[in-house]
């Protein structure tokens, strides 16, 4: 059985790694030119029941613990005046919670665990056509072609595989603007102290200013805004600072200190409850299957999808159709409530009463949900 995985993100690489551990080969087709072609983003917290579970199934939990930063779980939530509303302090050195790890480090960990040649770089899938005898003919940007018996779409928000299963498309839900402050402890120690070793959120009226400390010493700053805001107004520091007029200068200094111009982009999500009828020889994992607002679940659920699909394929090597059916049934049941909750949290963070709502959310009733 020739398995093609479209997309070399965390979900696709986790799937390839766990299949490899079961003696099942796969080829990962990735559009980027190489592992260092672009930044992989900030850091993420891996949840014990999903991301960490998948790494355990991949045989990589020990390496994860050697690279992750439990202190990165520290989380501060402030109001626009700079007053602390919530300050979560993790237990020192404990991996029992949701330790943070830089996305680049985690991706490299997965890449290093795969046999040479597993990832075919510079292969952006543009079309997949069913073959008369089963399986799919794959066409890549630049004219390269390949065939497979089983196709897994792990190719993210703009998946080229998804249209084989559903006509549903993502819709804009917000705007995120990204900035970077490099070598923050040396160049801007006051900002390093403000953010601490983990995450900071400052909650205003329908806008959020956030920052997270990466393991390489950089500070990743983000601005979240409703989808109906003007994207062009977000392309300069001056435009952003005007949006945050009246905020504490210690917070807006996060924007002023950024190394380069802001990088705004629209955030999209699939409708909650999205599913599809089973089709032989093809399925989806991660954002391709259930694109959600970025509130901490996307990467974790993508990796869990991969672990569960690999487990089903390993258990039913002679009947991949049954394996995919079992995976999809369980995935839909798991994802739909998580996607609904993610949508609620995302809407709450960009509401007029975000600070009040977030404080209520981070009460003991919701302990562990962050």
UniProtKB/TrEMBL annotation:
GO terms for molecular function: FAD binding; monooxygenase activity. Pfam families: FAD_binding_3. It comes from the Bacteria. Residues 3-195, 281-316 form the FAD-binding domain. Coiled coil: none annotated. The keyword Transcription regulation does not apply. Keywords: FAD, Flavoprotein, Monooxygenase, Oxidoreductase. This is FAD-dependent oxidoreductase. It comes from Paractinoplanes ferrugineus.
């Amino acid at each position: 059985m020739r398995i093609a995985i479209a997309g070399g993100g965390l979900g696709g690489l986790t799937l390839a790694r766990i299949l490899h551990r079961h003696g099942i080969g796969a080829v990962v087709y990735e559009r980027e030119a190489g592992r260092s072609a672009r930044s992989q983003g900030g850091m993420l917290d891996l949840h014990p029941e999903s991301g960490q579970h998948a790494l355990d199934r991949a045989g990589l939990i020990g390496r994860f613990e050697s690279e992750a930063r439990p202190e990165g779980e520290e989380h501060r939530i402030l109001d626009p005046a700079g007053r602390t509303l919530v300050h979560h302090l993790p237990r020192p050195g404990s991996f029992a919670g949701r330790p943070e790890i830089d996305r680049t480090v985690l991706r490299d960990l997965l890449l290093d665990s795969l046999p040479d040649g597993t990832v075919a770089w510079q292969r952006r899938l543009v079309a997949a056509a069913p073959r008369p005898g089963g399986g799919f003919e794959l066409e890549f940007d630049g004219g390269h072609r390949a065939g497979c018996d089983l196709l897994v779409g792990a190719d993210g928000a703009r998946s080229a595989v998804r249209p084989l299963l559903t006509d549903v498309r993502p819709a804009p839900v917000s705007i995120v603007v990204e900035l970077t402050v490099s070598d923050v402890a040396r160049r801007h120690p006051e900002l390093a102290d403000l953010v601490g070793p983990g995450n900071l959120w400052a909650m205003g009226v329908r806008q959020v200013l956030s920052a997270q400390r990466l393991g390489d010493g950089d500070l990743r700053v983000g601005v979240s805004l409703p989808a109906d805001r003007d994207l062009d107004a977000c392309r300069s520091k001056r435009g952003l600072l005007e949006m945050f007029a009246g905020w504490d200068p210690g917070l807006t200094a996060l924007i002023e200190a950024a190394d380069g111009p802001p990088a705004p982009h629209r955030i999209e999500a699939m409708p909650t409850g999205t599913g599809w009828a089973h089709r032989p020889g093809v399925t989806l994992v991660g954002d391709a299957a259930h694109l959600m607002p970025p509130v901490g679940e996307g990467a974790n659920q993508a990796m869990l999808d991969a672990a569960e699909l690999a487990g089903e394929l390993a258990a039913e090597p002679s009947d991949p159709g049954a394996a995919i059916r079992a995976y999809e049934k369980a995935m839909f049941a798991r994802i739909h409530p998580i996607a609904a909750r993610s949508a609620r949290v995302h809407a709450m963070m960009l509401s007029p009463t975000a600070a009040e709502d977030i404080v209520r959310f981070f009460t003991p009733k919701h302990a562990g949900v962050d």
